Amino acid sequence: MGRVFKRKAAESEEQKSSTKRNREEREEEDEELNEVVDEEQESDESEDDSDEEDEESIEEDEEEGEENGDGDDEKFLDFDFEGFPMEENDRDGIVNMLTQTFLRTDIDLKGMADALIEQAPFGLVVGPADDEADEDDKNAVHAICTAIQICPKKAKSAKFEKDIEAFLTSRAKKSAPKEFLRKLDEFLQDDSTMIFVNERMLNFPTIIVPKNFASLRNDIVGLAEPPKNVIYIQKIRIGEAKEGDQQKEQKARRKMGKAEKKRLAASQLAQADIEFDNAEDKFLFELEDGDEMHFDYPVHMDVEPGSKFHVIEKKGRKWNPFRRLVLMDYKRFDAFLQRGMHL
């Protein structure tokens, strides 16, 4: 599925300078040699002409090779990835994928990973093809695409379900509107609610998305009853406002009450520039089928500084890490899967 190329390193200025000096020294030595050995001058000139012709021939061959894409500037290595049903040896890799969603939270991710594995062959993980797998890590997990039922209000619900309920409710109470809190509570009390897990390594190619979504959709269609509700946590980044806008915002906040500040924050997030870590996630909000409701919460405090998931800067502008908690009905979710199948 993936294609990686390694670009040949450019020659440094020091190397270029050294090469130039060596060439000049060789030319001076040739001139001295020609003065001492006059009788070989004609032979030397003939050899020089031959060398120049050879160099011109080599340059022409290199140019022709570059035009045909056969030059040495780019060397391509192909890697094949495949989707596999989850198994016990995938546990650590699955936990790593789940950590990208929940970060440093008190959620029993190992228990959740075990529950996902127990559902096999429902859902899948993506890893190196069998003939390219590393002997030391045959169960490397580069991506996961699955869903799992969650109903923490049930008496026999698993610990990870109750942990997720506490975590999501806590985040929503801090900044989400009341109507979102009510909807979240409805979802968490309904035994027909599933959490959609769509994670992969950062910057992993989206070429895997169509097959992943198609496979999961087939799995869900095969259930006795499809879910009514779906919870999905997306990884997003939000660009910071310009300095002048930040100063105006700070002045305005000083005169506001708690409820007003919450409404202002929600309004600003709705108008902010957003980037999705998973490119396909943006399509979820362009669909007309079904309904969805979401809110965004910051996670920079949950990430170690210097981490690839922490604040990043591009072209002098900071992009802060957030998570988008999406509540949607099955109609919107199914439309999203179908849209992803045709990326």
TrEMBL record:
<feature type="region of interest" description="Disordered">
    <location>
        <begin position="1"/>
        <end position="78"/>
    </location>
</feature>
<dbReference type="InterPro" id="IPR025602">
    <property type="entry name" value="BCP1_family"/>
</dbReference>
<dbReference type="GO" id="GO:0005634">
    <property type="term" value="C:nucleus"/>
</dbReference>
<feature type="compositionally biased region" description="Acidic residues">
    <location>
        <begin position="26"/>
        <end position="78"/>
    </location>
</feature>
<feature type="compositionally biased region" description="Basic and acidic residues">
    <location>
        <begin position="8"/>
        <end position="25"/>
    </location>
</feature>
<protein>
    <recommendedName>
        <fullName>Protein BCCIP homolog</fullName>
    </recommendedName>
</protein>
<dbReference type="Pfam" id="PF13862">
    <property type="entry name" value="BCCIP"/>
</dbReference>
<comment type="similarity">
    <text>Belongs to the BCP1 family.</text>
</comment>
